[in-house]
């Protein structure tokens, strides 16, 4: 299983692809596939048959996963896209901003 540098709930900026420069929250992370789903990014249209949940059916817009290598975490303290470093906190490790040194995990 691969470990990702982003987690569900992190704010990220897209580095590559058709949505380059867009910012959003990570809705879901898929470590085995190395992909993340970002809110409002890579929106695709899917045709859905009528069901009990959606009796009308029709065209539904939803976010599709993008590669985790194409996103960079935005530091909550300095509000800049940054790489992360491991910092010893207590008996474990936490993620911290490489630019300002602020711990991202609380």
UniProtKB/TrEMBL annotation:
Q: Which gene encodes it?
A: rplX
**Listed GO molecular functions?**
rRNA binding; structural constituent of ribosome
Keyword list, A-Z: Ribonucleoprotein, Ribosomal protein, RNA-binding, rRNA-binding
What is the recorded function of this protein according to its Swiss-Prot or TrEMBL entry? One of the proteins that surrounds the polypeptide exit tunnel on the outside of the subunit. One of two assembly initiator proteins, it binds directly to the 5'-end of the 23S rRNA, where it nucleates assembly of the 50S subunit.
Q: What is the lineage of its organism?
A: Bacteria, Bacillati, Bacillota, Negativicutes, Acidaminococcales
The protein's name is Large ribosomal subunit protein uL24
| Quaternary context | Part of the 50S ribosomal subunit.
CDD domains according to UniProt:
KOW_RPL26
- List GO terms (cellular component aspect): ribonucleoprotein complex; ribosome
Q: Which domain of life is it from?
A: Bacteria
Q: Which PROSITE patterns does the record associate with it? A: RIBOSOMAL_L24
BP GO terms, sorted: translation
- Look up and give the organism this protein is from: Acidaminococcus intestini
| Family (UniProt) | Belongs to the universal ribosomal protein uL24 family.
HAMAP family per the UniProt record, alphabetical: Ribosomal_uL24_B
């Amino acid at each position: 299983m691969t470990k990702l540098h982003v987690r569900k709930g992190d704010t990220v900026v897209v580095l590559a692809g058709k949505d380059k420069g867009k910012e959003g929250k990570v809705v879901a992370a898929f470590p085995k596939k190395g992909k993340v789903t970002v809110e409002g990014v890579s929106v695709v249209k899917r045709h859905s048959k009528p069901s009990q949940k959606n009796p009308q059916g029709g065209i539904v817009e939803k976010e599709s996963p993008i590669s985790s290598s194409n996103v960079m975490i935005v530091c909550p303290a300095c509000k800049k896209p940054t790489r992360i470093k491991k910092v010893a906190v207590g008996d474990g490790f936490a993620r911290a901003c490489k630019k300002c040194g602020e711990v991202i995990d609380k």
